[in-house]
Specification:
By secondary structure, this protein is α/β, with parallel strands linked by helices. It has one domain: STAS domain (Transcription Regulator spoIIAA, 2-Layer Sandwich). 37% of the residues lie in helices and 28% in strands.
């Protein structure tokens, strides 16, 4: 079985939101590439960056540390980092590492975007 290569796509989703979609195995070897992708999102000048991990097949502690570091850096600058998981391959690792208690995490990209882009509906 071949290991899917790391891939990242950065897109601006509005005036204040960027999406970084990543796929493949996220480990020490691709950490610089992930950091480059996050830096590309930063250059868009957005407040919130959503990192979609839906296409990730493996996530190690090095990447967890990089994500926490990025979240703290963004918070210090008045921004926010949001994570989208894809079920057990990533959500379990984030849960065990306690990252889901530090960085807002959503089960689906749809759920994250709905929360971030749609205004709350008043109760009837």
């Amino acid at each position: 079985m071949t290991v899917p290569p790391f891939r990242a796509t950065v897109a601006e989703l509005g005036n204040d939101l960027a999406l970084v979609s990543v796929s493949g195995e996220l480990d020490l070897f691709v950490q610089p590439d992930l950091r480059d992708s996050l830096a590309a999102a930063d250059r868009l000048g957005v407040h919130t960056v959503v990192v979609d991990l839906s296409g990730v097949s493996f996530l190690d502690s090095t990447i967890c540390g990089a994500l926490v570091g990025e979240a703290k850096r963004r918070q210090a600058a008045g921004g926010e980092l949001i994570l989208v998981t894809n079920g057990p391959p990533t959500s379990r690792v984030l849960e065990v590492a306690g990252i889901d208690r530090v960085i807002p995490t959503f089960a689906t990209l749809h759920g994250a975007l709905q929360e971030l882009l749609l205004e709350p509906q008043p109760a009837l």
